[in-house]
Amino acid sequence: MILTLTVNPSIDRLARLDTELKRGGVFRLPMSEDMAGGKGINVSKAVHYAGSDTLALYPAAEHGKFTRLLEVSGIPHEAINTMNEARVNLTIAEADGTTTKLNSPGMTLTKAHRRRVLEKLVHHAKKATWVVFAGSLPPGVPRDFYVNCTEAVQSINPDAHVAMDTSDGPLTSVVQAFPSVRPYLMKPNAFELGQIVGADGEALEAAALSGDFAPAAEAAQELNARGVTEVLATLGEAGAVLAIKDGPCYAAEAPKITPQSTVGAGDCALAGYLLARERGDSYTSALSSAVAYGAAATSLPGTTIPYPEQVHAEYARAWQLN
Known about the structure:
The protein is α/β, with parallel strands linked by helices. The protein is built from ten helices and 14 strands. The strands form two sheets. Strands 5-4-1-8-9-10-11-12-13-14 form a ten-stranded mixed β-sheet, with helices on both faces. α1 (39-49) packs across α9 (265-279) and α3 (111-125) packs parallel to α4 (145-156).
């Protein structure tokens, strides 16, 4: 089972415009919609749509709108009841594919809330093969909370692989906890990878876009050297690299698509990778699955998560770098 924890879930509100967004303007929306979101939630959605076992954990009101949205989707989930509603994140999608995101900070999680999160996490992690910690942390949560979560999972189920996808303070805290506590898999984007190793993330992505994946691969291998077994670094439209501790590096170019929204693309890339690893696929196949899932998500509006029939790994190209 792939267990996900989304500490800062969100109601993702998509507002589609048929014109260009201009500051100070008044716009009538041709359509808008709400869906349950958050990085871990998105991973669980993609895994569930593919027919694999997953459970999405999240702190929010047990009978609130966020939970009702998840119930409609049919995704296995469990609310860690806080009596508070999830935040609302607004995505403005323009006709040319440009997306603008306005993210709320989220509800405050008290010490008692955090204790219940850890209790539920430990309970379900006993049966998990992968445990995914993804997304930002809401107000009131210490930035080393993912370190605590990783320790809790590793103490109760040492065979479970922890996958980490976060940024800023929480990411820094995870890296600072090396080597005593470290995830099995990390999935940074180019900017986050640059933050970790002290490189220019934009330059890493630009080099990959020009066909040179070596700089991103070398940066990912620095995380291997610090003890992370697998590093999946997504590089926007260029594709991704995969670095394996004491093993080779791989690169992949994504299938060509017409972009609509990049929101959730990284989450879907992680889901595609985990699905392939659960099947026992080769690293090149898993990386192809990752970039294909990310491309499929980018070809869809808002935070729409692709179904397997919308994912075309056969059009991705993955190869071993060294």
